[in-house]
């Protein structure tokens, strides 16, 4: 089942697998242009995710959220509607796919990336082992909370996901702090070139296992870990539990 996904999946219970598809590179100039962009004024200006046509085909009731057109629920189906969708996602052996491509995905590079991140978030980022992640908080200069975030040590970079409604403000805060930071760090905003999907429910592992390469053992993935992989033959994807 495809479920509505206007709410952030950084919060909430239940087994999850977060899947990301391959991005293209983004220049610093493009980041600055995006940061300066005004919010969408009407439906014609809303960003559509790669699953937009599928949402419509399945009866998605599309609404504006964080500058994107996203389904708040599905109509006209036996299992559609807020309550039925919720119960499906919590039922034994079932799983629901959330389109959360509106969320902000960032890659941090540079030899001082961990040191910089520890100036803007809470937690021991330098101590994260490769492939492991943590839930953290983005803070201002006084320690006040700006947003929550998930941060993963992806080996040659740090992968960060921030909330869709606040991502541009978060990145503006990061750019301001980077201007004051004396070290080697760069921020790559993946924009909408990288789609983000979340599979949730008791049957999530069984569902995603069908499109993983032979020999990929999901049972060995601990909570808050991730790795690059191939999904249904598509290379350059990343799966996170």
Task: Kindly summarize this structure in a few lines.
With 241 residues, the chain is an alpha+beta fold. The protein has helices at 28-36, 52-57, 82-90, 113-120, 167-180, 204-209; strands spanning 2-3, 16-20, 47-48, 60-65, 68-74, 96-99, 104-109, 133-139, 145-153, 158-162, 186-189, 196-200, 226-231, 234-240.
Distinctive features:
single chain; 241 residues; alpha+beta; five-stranded antiparallel sheet; 6 helices; 14 strands; 22% helix
Describe this structure in words.
This protein is of the alpha+beta class and 241 residues long. The protein has helices spanning 28-36, 52-57, 82-90, 113-120, 167-180, 204-209; strands at 2-3, 16-20, 47-48, 60-65, 68-74, 96-99, 104-109, 133-139, 145-153, 158-162, 186-189, 196-200, 226-231, 234-240. It has a 6-stranded mixed β-sheet with strand order 1-6-12-2-14-13. A hairpin with a 5-residue loop joins strand 8 (133-139) and strand 9 (145-153). The longest helix is centred in the last third of the chain and has 14 residues, at 167-180. The radius of gyration is 18 Å and the shape is globular. The two termini are 19 Å apart. 32% of the residues are buried. Residues 4-16 and 21-41 have low confidence and may be disordered.
């Amino acid at each position: 089942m495809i479920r509505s996904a206007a709410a952030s999946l950084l919060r909430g219970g239940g087994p999850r697998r977060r899947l990301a598809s391959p991005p293209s590179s983004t220049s610093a100039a493009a980041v600055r242009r995006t940061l300066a962009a005004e919010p969408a004024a009407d439906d014609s200006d809303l960003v559509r995710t790669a699953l937009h046509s599928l949402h419509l085909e399945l009866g998605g009731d599309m609404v504006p959220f964080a500058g994107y057109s996203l389904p708040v629920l599905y109509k006209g189906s036996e299992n559609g509607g807020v309550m039925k969708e919720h119960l499906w996602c919590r039922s034994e052996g079932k799983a629901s796919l959330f389109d959360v491509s509106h969320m902000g995905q960032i890659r941090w590079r540079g030899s001082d990336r961990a040191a910089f991140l520890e100036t803007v978030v809470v937690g021991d980022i330098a101590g994260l082992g490769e492939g492991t992640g943590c839930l953290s908080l983005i803070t201002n200069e006084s320690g006040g909370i700006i947003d929550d975030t998930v941060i993963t040590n992806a080996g040659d970079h740090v992968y960060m996901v921030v909330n869709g409604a606040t991502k541009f403000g978060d990145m503006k805060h990061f750019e301001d702090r980077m201007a004051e930071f004396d070290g080697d760090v760069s921020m790559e905003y993946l924009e909408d070139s990288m789609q983000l999907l979340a599979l949730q429910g008791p049957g999530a592992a069984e569902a995603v296992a069908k499109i993983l390469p032979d020999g990929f053992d999901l049972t060995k993935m601990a909570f808050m870990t991730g790795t690059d992989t191939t999904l249904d033959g598509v290379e350059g994807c990343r799966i996170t539990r």
